[in-house]
Amino acid sequence: MTNIATLPAPRNAWYLGAWSNEVTEKPLARTILDENVVLYRQPGSKAAVLEDRCSHRATPLSLGDVTDRGLQCGYHGLTFNSKGECVFIPGQESIPPQACVRSYPVVERQGFVWIWTGDPEQADANHPTLIDYPWNDDTENWPTHYGYMHIKCNYMLLNDNLMDLTHIPFIHRRTIGGGNQMGQVNAEMKTRKTPTGVHYIRWMDKIQPPPTYVKAAGFAADAKVDRWQEFEYIAPITVLQWTGALESGRGARENREQDGGFQLRIYHGATPETDSSCHYFFTCNNGCTTQSEADNDRLFREIRDTFLEDLEFLENQQACLEDDPTRALVDIKHDTARIHARRTIDRMLAEEEGHLAVAAS
Amino acid sequence: MTNIATLPAPRNAWYLGAWSNEVTEKPLARTILDENVVLYRQPGSKAAVLEDRCSHRATPLSLGDVTDRGLQCGYHGLTFNSKGECVFIPGQESIPPQACVRSYPVVERQGFVWIWTGDPEQADANHPTLIDYPWNDDTENWPTHYGYMHIKCNYMLLNDNLMDLTHIPFIHRRTIGGGNQMGQVNAEMKTRKTPTGVHYIRWMDKIQPPPTYVKAAGFAADAKVDRWQEFEYIAPITVLQWTGALESGRGARENREQDGGFQLRIYHGATPETDSSCHYFFTCNNGCTTQSEADNDRLFREIRDTFLEDLEFLENQQACLEDDPTRALVDIKHDTARIHARRTIDRMLAEEEGHLAVAAS
Amino acid sequence: MTNIATLPAPRNAWYLGAWSNEVTEKPLARTILDENVVLYRQPGSKAAVLEDRCSHRATPLSLGDVTDRGLQCGYHGLTFNSKGECVFIPGQESIPPQACVRSYPVVERQGFVWIWTGDPEQADANHPTLIDYPWNDDTENWPTHYGYMHIKCNYMLLNDNLMDLTHIPFIHRRTIGGGNQMGQVNAEMKTRKTPTGVHYIRWMDKIQPPPTYVKAAGFAADAKVDRWQEFEYIAPITVLQWTGALESGRGARENREQDGGFQLRIYHGATPETDSSCHYFFTCNNGCTTQSEADNDRLFREIRDTFLEDLEFLENQQACLEDDPTRALVDIKHDTARIHARRTIDRMLAEEEGHLAVAAS
After folding, report:
1. pTM to 2 decimal places
2. What ipTM was assigned to the predicted interfaces of this complex?
3. Main-chain phi, psi angles of A142, to 5 degrees
């Protein structure tokens, strides 16, 4: 039976390795899909990613320094360029070719540093796992905050979480999910499979807006709003969130891109660290442009605090699954989108295994 | 050879899962014999015990809330009654029978919450492992304190400790075991096997009472007392202690239940958590009814501090045993009661294995 | 392939178990080559070393007390002499011979407590692994400080570190290795194999003395010195260091033992704890006898701080090696002495294995 506690991740995919603002001249060590890498940046250059292990004595390169020549090992000074080639060995003229280290294909754009973890020959900037997220670049209209959390759970548990929002009135019952529990559970929900995952939208019409929305959008005290929650999962790690509300009668269902309501976009990406832990990257792109910087900061902190409530459940769920990882679970009605997401991953894994089998035969 | 570091425990037995006062509307997670359970209480009801894992997505139920319907999972709201039946799935009418979770037979009385960890069909309120301990209910005459410690050792190492009191002048040499070391070692000792374990009583006649006793019972400065230490092991986890002293000449050997001396009962129960850790539950029932509440508190704190001295040895002993768990040990004369206790457990384990073998054939 | 992360150590050798001043009447627990031992001292006697496990109930003897009779177990009072013989069992006349514990051959001299971890029959006070280090006894001319660090790396990684000083301008680039990086890398280096390891000496002629040297030896502001770094590795754990400088023209190459320059001897010994951790013992014997005690203290602290910089690299290198312990590394020119040191150990291990094979056949 499948070990649902430690689902693997497809290797031939782009994974979010860091936010651009994390990658500087001070090398950053991170483990992605069980591989230790070091991310760094030559001044004025794009991010570079190498394996975090010097070819000479196996010291982490992340303990070294960025120099003019490249990333210099902090132990005996061997230096590597962004292709992983060894370009300098102190006290020695000739450089043996086996002194190189592995480098990773990288695409840096829109605030994301994407790393290709599979066969470098197949790294393709048009691959569907490389996400276009223009809102990070449109900070006039979508002021952006970048968030990061380390979570001790398999990456798919976070995707599962985002594929079933009926968790909100339970996990978040003491915060954003307070109030009418069953009203939130029974929101209208439309789910459709996509070639790369699953898409759903939930509508709650003519409801009282939640306090966060009132504060952000300035709805009147007795206003009723039409509220939406649109989520798209793009395998393996991306969930695009667009949530918001407009006063009822303004035609939210026909056109959500109107001024004067509440508008929030969130990028969610849970990059596997090991098979039982992940890096959770998220943005908060606030579309309520009337808000001050302080308002934006507060909204971001509220969102982060909400995610910490999820984190507590996810880490405990992981531990519970590991105790008996092949024991069956019981699906319920609200698992539909979650099941589509899982099937997408299962398909990607099967395809990758098929390719490997063909390559090996 | 037997692995003496990680002796298993018989499953068909009652184990002390918690003190009654620990079980409230706020669910309590605990691991008993390697099983994760959640203990909770509906207002005004007896304690209930379920496995701590929701059937839907394997989240610990202990992260949820007690509601009118039962224990509600904090992730997506599935709700279970005290039999483990799923009684509510948000947004769904029909409830599949496989959505149930395991429930455990429970007996709650005299301040104890007893859990049956074996075959539920065999759970029997007359089973000898369910202990009668009336002193907890007689708080007029035996004011009671409840104690708990987590100890990283196999449960039998604690029973071993209590079966050989010659450890007192050594482990407790800086506290209650100070003074005449060999006098304490050479106390008169009578040991007898019982159907459920072993019983012994130690007498020290015409000795100077220890400071704790003087303080509690108000013995005269030059008083000599006859002091007893009576212990009964009832497999697998119970040790009943009755210790005390009367002024010499008052006939302690004929009748220990006289006013005016020192009287202390302690319930000891080391419920296995894993095979290398246990929950140590203990009471302090002080029979010196002339003492104030502050005196009782102080006595309890002194006892707890003494047990912390044992804990240091037990955890180090466990680590030492694990380094070479099948290496032989050397028995000495004072191991007699300890050996009887071990044999009782060995017999219970062999019987249980025999039943299982018969059932499987 | 060899697992280079966890190289074993020869057992038939003397290992530095403690500094003499660490061994007192308060027993000291330490793990040496994966064996748990207890070191203690009867008042006025030499250090004794026993296995740290009572034969009775497997409690660590290090939790006990030194008594007139010997080391007494803190649990039930069994007592052992320095040969490991059980000499006392409370409450029991006869002592079974199997109650003894293992004792270790010990040589204590010059501030070192040497332990023989192999076959006791072969323990030989003339064995080349027992080092003569007279400077610790000559505190008039060589004021001595004793240092200790626990490092989570295989012992040979520390020896590797000391066999290639080109690490100094890199690991210590922010402290003692600052300044002319390539000047330090390209110092003249003479390496020769010895029957017990390897010896090398590095010379830097007519250079500006480093600040530490100026401070200690009082060199003039514009002085040029001839500086040497002499290191000898004596397998398995010893590295003898003698470093110093004299004003150029005073003939340092012909005679280094002149007054008025900088003189420092360091004993380095990395005794294996487990195959992935070691005890790093080091002395600082300052030959600049004009210095005050406060100067000596400061020099020792500076050296210790430098070693903490090494420690960070060594522990990270160990972790990196463990991730893929058989993956090949790339040797460079400056690895010559390191490779000789490794080969000495490989030879000792092969010899020991050969003896064992002969003994078993």
Report:
1. 0.95
2. 0.94
3. -135, 70
